[in-house]
Amino acid sequence: MRWGDLNNSTNGMKEVLIIMFVEWILVLFFAYYLDQVFTSGSGKSPFFFLKGFQKKPLSSFGKPSLGKQGSKVFIQMDKHDVSQEREKVEQLLLEPTINQAIICDNLKKVYPGRDGNPDKLAVRGLSLALPNGECFGMLGPNGAGKTSFINMMIGLTKPTAGTAFVQGLDIRTHMNGIYTSMGVCPQHDLLWETLTGREHLLFYGRLKNLKGSALTQAVEESLKSVNLFHGGVDDKQAGKYSGGMKRRLSVAISLIGDPRVVYMDEPSTGLDPASRNNLWNVVKHAKRDRAIILTTHSMEEAEVLCDRLGIFVDGSLQCIGNPKELKARYGGTYVFTMTTTMDHEKDVEAMVQQLYPAAKKVYHISGTQKFELPKEEVQIASVFRAVETAKRNFTVSAWGLADTTLEDVFIKVARDAQAFETLS
Ligand SMILES: Nc1ncnc2c1ncn2[C@@H]1O[C@H](COP(=O)(O)OP(=O)(O)OP(=O)(O)O)[C@@H](O)[C@H]1O
What are the TM regions of this chain, as residue ranges (predicted)? Predict the structure, then answer.
């Protein structure tokens, strides 16, 4: 066959080539469609191509947003601090500055429902701006969407809507550029059992473009900083490390190569108190000149390490601020606890009600009761006097008066958000 034979109507080659070309175009579209609908993480609705024809709503910044999950409709009302953060993001997007390490712009993640289940809205429009040198703590109950958020930021999954900018680069289009300045400590250690701690760091150091003596020095400093240098542990296979040692190695990996932005997903899980303190010192030192996003279930860790905190419940930020601000905003109460025998519970309740009629019982289990007392009314001396009188009338095994802790704030915010979710 020669090109000239295509004009010969008797061999039919021209028609065959046209059919192949048309088939190729159709199959290309079909493959693209299957990829969009079935790809893990970025899976879209089977009718995603119709979205372009739908009328787009005007900007949703700062306004309550209405959404639908399965047959359930939810109304998302931003709290004042959260809408302020949104406005800040909006402003920063209009006038970008180099000072911001991370800007999340209405980031959303929806996992398509399978087997008749409704879609899962894991992240419902997160707006957040993080300057260089800030450690931001993300707190939230299990399943709140923290890992889904981090997975989008590190390029493991694609956002369903919205986007984020890391050092000015868009996570949807410039992930390769972002990888060079990013460190990650995942929730579950991703280590090679047969490689030593030192080999892991050499490998990741090379990925970050470190070479020669700079690489050797960075690896050594890194091993020392997480206490994996002495006693030959650096040359032991990671498979033989304890859980705590693996965790410390994961943190060291996330920090090697001087990344500008680091994500740490529950970094101190499974560490004993001494190793945890050591790890906190590493993070405190590291956060001086880089932005860190850290998820944790430990309120103590959040208070020690984070400059600002966000409490994340059911895919949305419920509040944002530094730990002191949050305690002042959501606290406003002292917590009075008293333990007696069960038959004197009523006496304790009567005593508290008489002292502070606005007191609220928040916890009660076999003789131990907790009350929230309005801070502005409480006089500590009168509480002491009332307890002394009570002790003369019945046996008090233990009692205490405490200021609001971050844990109280967390429980309150999570409970209120879940109650609101149930109501709507
Ligand atoms: N690939 C997936 N497909 C469908 N649903 C998912 C997927 N990954 C997570 N989810 C759901 O999304 C929600 C958020 O999960 P995510 O793991 O992000 O929460 P989390 O806050 O990190 O929880 P934890 O503190 O337990 O790690 C959960 O309800 C989870 O079941």
Answer: 16-34
Distance from C-alpha of 164 to C-alpha of 104, rounded to nearest angstrom:
4
Distance 62 CA to ligand 1 centre (A): 26
387 in ligand 1 pocket by Cβ < 6 Å? no
Question: Is the same domain home to 283 and 356?
Answer: no
Quote the domain boundaries for residue 381.
332-403
pLDDT score, position 5: 83
Q: Is residue 424 part of a domain?
A: no
Report which protein residue has its CA nearest ligand 1's atom 9.
148
From 121, 146, 160, 313, the mutation candidate for ligand 1 (largest count of ligand atoms within 8 A of CB) is 146
Q: Is 201 in the pocket of ligand 1 (CB under 6 A)?
A: no
pLDDT band at 81 (very low <50, low <70, confident <90, very high): confident
CB 147 within 8 A of CB 187: yes
Is ipTM > 0.90 here? yes
| Rounded Cα–Cα distance for residues 12 and 16 (Å) | 6
CATH for 359: 3.30.70
Ramachandran sector of residue 423 (left: φ over 0; alpha: ψ -120 to 50; beta: rest): alpha
pTM over 0.80: no
| Ligand 1: residue whose CA is nearest its atom 5 | 111
